[in-house]
Fold each of these.
Amino acid sequence: MSGSVLVAPSLLAADFADLGAEMARAEAAGADWHHVDVMDGHFVPNLTIGPPVVAALARRAAVPLDVHLMIERPAEWAERYAEAGADRLTFHYEAAADFPAALEAFAATGRPVGVAVDPPCGVEPLRPFLDRIDLVLVMSVKAGFGGQSFRPEVLAKVEQLRSWGFAGRIEMDGGIDDRTAPRCRAAGADVLVSGSWLFGREDMAAGVATLRGGPA
């Protein structure tokens, strides 16, 4: 396990009319990263933002942009999002027709390489490549929409990765709150993404502290 638990508020749950202020609020609350969901309306049935918005966010961000690409043909877009200002890039295993080639494309950007898996997908296909992966994002909901309920069965994937000796970051995204975060941490996850639960709180700093395992 990589060490301290990081918290990455998901901008998908922020006020899109005032993202700069929402980012500043998250940073003031102690956010370690901003989680940025990119959806293309094809790989997932929703549409969010593209490289120009990521570039605008990068100009305002005081902490790293953790960009989660829920898009088809991710390897073709790796360099574009890196150039836009993504500090970390994660793509879906299920979206890569040639997974080794996609890993190479993302590694070539010089950014830490993340690979996401949706709830139906196991982590066994990643095992031969773990030495080339910096982060595994275990989706605890179906990718594409915020506000879904946490699926506890995916915690077995986190435990399996740690049992194999994976020492990179393991990120959990979907339904993360004060009830589910302790289970994620206990399984071995060390990056927690939370959207509506954090952005819907008046005291976001207390929420961030709670997700890390400290007092509310």
Amino acid sequence: MTETATGKTAILLGATGLIGGHCLEFLLKSPRYSKVLCLVRKKLPIINEKLQQVVVDFDNLAAYAEQMKGDDVFCCLGTTIKIAKSKENFKMVDYVYPLEVAKIAQQMGAQQYLIVTAMGADKNSFVFYNEVKGKTEHDIKALRYQSLHILQPSLLLGDREEARTGEKVGEAVMKTFDFMFKGPLKKYRAIEARAVAFAMVHLATINQAGIHTHQSDEIQSIYDKYAQQ
């Protein structure tokens, strides 16, 4: 990923997550950004001259508007019903917070928003998880950012801090039958979280106006093509 430094500011949500951790790594290395502003519940044990951590109360994001001045917003927030413990809490993390930050950051000058949702996201879905992800996409699209990239990965591979038994089982199954995911089924192949994070940061560098949705196979292709450059 080669680019001339532009002195831009990146805003990152979800830096402690599976994708967000890798995204932070790539953002700190990217010459595109002179500052990486992380919105966190508690500070990360990371020291970097480009990193600025803002400890926020996500239930009162408007109070931190002046600290959300940036160019590109990267949203890697996401949880599960098991971890959130209720549908209401899940919706707060996967819908309310991403949308609220999108609104505030846009008001403060951000022109590009990149978000990880999920394959199957559909606001009309009968599956609660997919419905919430789809509603998040729909309402952020309505904000009309100059550039909006939506990444819809399949099952994520990588080491999480918290155990997700169902995903571990799914990961084992996907790896066993990986050879079957070809042609039209390629987009269902499991994907490394690192590849998703890389694609996310890469897409931010191409300055492509409009709304763009990237499914898992395209995300993998971006990683395969550009990660070694």
Amino acid sequence: MSTEMTEKEQMNTTEETNVMTDMDSTADVAIEVKNLCIGYKNIQAYSIKKSLLKFKKSHVEEFQAVKDVSFTVPKGEILGIIGKNGSGKSTMLKALAGIFNPDKGSIDLKGHTVSLMAIGVGFQTEVTGRENILLSGMLLGFSEEEIRAKMPEIIEFADLGKFIDMPVKTYSSGMHSKLAFSITAILETEIMLVDEVLSVGDAKFKKKSYAKMKELISNKDRTVIIVSHNIDTLKKLCNKVMWMHEGEIKKIGDPVEVLDEYEEFMQ
């Protein structure tokens, strides 16, 4: 009997291989975003005052922050997102973290745990930094025992001194950033969302946080999305970069190619 495969057998083998590749590809996706739309309704104070005094209906303006965005992030990938202020970067990140609900479309994190590093998100300003470590950890899904076991390491990394036992409302933006980064970096999740915190803080902490981030993303099972205006950081850390402009994806692909084009566009 001939050992050569018939044309039909070759086609069947190719189809089986394609199906297996598709299944593997689907299994390896950590984040899947489909047709995501997020808008804000803005009622101007002047209109509200007029409506109260003259019983006229307030004029409501809707701003579309994210417009029909779709993309996937494979497990273990480091995706950078860049764009000018107001392009929808932080809004989308907060939607991925579950803080904002989409108006349309879907977000599928494939059952992975997720954390968001961002200034002004997730802290109770009236209580201390130490208490916020506990609260933030619980919101991330960790038990009190797990958080308390990691608390000394978080406090040491944040390096806030006596301020760790003072209300967060007394913190500067740099101190807030230190605490936010330390909590998320030490209480490791499968998906990490980082919003500009690598660029805030003193020079010593920037160096330390950058080194810690490199250590965290070296884990091939961890998926990371970094929103930043720092082109050099994105080129060094990311496998892929997405350029957002006016709520839409303008380009996504190789970091150097996308970022060079972005720089040229912004000149």
Amino acid sequence: MSATKPQPQKLVVGTRGSELALTQADATEAALAAAFPGIGLVRQIIRTTGDRRTDVSLASVAKSEGVFDKGVFIKEIEDALADGEIDIAVHSLKDLPTVLDERFELAAVLERAPVRDVWLARDPCHSLENIPAGSRIGTSSVRRAREATHHRPDLTTCDLRGNVPTRLRKLAAGDACDAAILAEAGLVRLGLLCQVPPAPVQKYQVPPAPEPIQNHPNLFAWRLAPDHFHPAAGQGAIGLEIRAGDEAARAACRAIRHRTSWLRILAEREFLRLLDGGCHTPVGIFSTLENDELHLKARVFPEGEGPPRQAESRGADPIATATTLYQSLA
């Protein structure tokens, strides 16, 4: 006789209050409700330092708070988790550090959304390849800035802060930047970009056709092939963080953990751990999993000038494949 799946009675879910964060909390709660009918779910919205301080760069906020760049988006949520105010913290996984504080653990990820970055501009001819030299590219991500100038050294980058709707408004106004780079997952989850299935083979095309952005008739989008413009580790994934040793929360999270997404995430985060990198490190990594074989490609940028190191590997085991990737960096 199979063991009965433990039935948690109540779970408190913690999340940021942005529109995208709330959408991710909706997805988490829907998955928990489907796995455990009748469970009591309570949502606690937590305003983080990163949500309050949008007037300066992430690096400046992080320095003043004594945390890594994107730690400004999780500190208050982890405080609530440690204090027992919430049971499960819902994060955009790329906001989490590679190695968590020993008080916490990453228990699960939901099925991963598209991982690509999206290039946005006001002119339908201003793709990454065709935008004029000297154009200003808005992003708060060091990795996106380095990827952009890796492909187009004649561009400049500038800091673009705020939630997704705010960044789109700033781009549409034309004062902050000439183009911007955002994650496809957020645009799709907010209904701003239509969801399309990934191509069987993500091959680079120069340039893809521009697409419209919902409710922004003066903005155009290009989905950037991830084998060319590498995404962040964990991009597109919703991560569920719990207190270490909380068996009830762990069982609940594992019941909704998406296997293939989890295996890809394990490999990507292990590569960052070996690299001693984190959310502030300019590194892109792209993974696929087909017929139980992982394929990893990575690009690691130096702190200063110079070309990135690159590598790729294949294998069945996430940790071993990530180790091979790390050892193959050239």
